[in-house]
Amino acid sequence: MVKKIYTRTGDQGKTALINGERLPKNSLVFEVLGTLDELNASLGLVVLKFKSKDLLFLKQRDLLIALQNELFKLGAEIAASPKVKLDDKFLKKLETEIDILQNSLGASWHYKFVLPGGSELSAFLDLSRTICRRLERRIVSLDNERDVREVILKFINRTSDYLYTLRTWVNKELKTKEIEFKA
Fold this sequence. Notes:
Helix content is 62%, strand content 3%. It is mainly alpha-helical and 183 residues long. A hairpin with a 5-residue loop joins β1 and β2.
């Protein structure tokens, strides 16, 4: 017999963390986990939009897939897994990639405000970046309730930095003109 996806244990508005602790579904920890899921789903769309066979684009697509896996690790840790913990190895990988992308963009690329979008791919990256920033705010709030390790805060902040840098790089590589904000 196939195990059913529904258990009815959440029908009264409570659900459990990995460690078995049952909490209301509107608890901040589940808000964090839901936003994390939303970010990961949006990155799935971004990965699908990487259609170029260019090796540089394939490298970024593969890094985004690896990022999705790291986000699952983060979710497990937030959900109180005793076995899965985020480490700083991938954080360092993101920082290295941000540096590479920044160097290819030139010195003044981040000194102007541009409207989200440009190309379709960068528009999806902008959406993922804003979800990531919301996740970061929720994790900071969660840190007020329960201890969140510093590596998690750094990882989410750097993920947003990477997504912003990547969306700018994508527009440059696709020769898409950025629309600058006009005050």
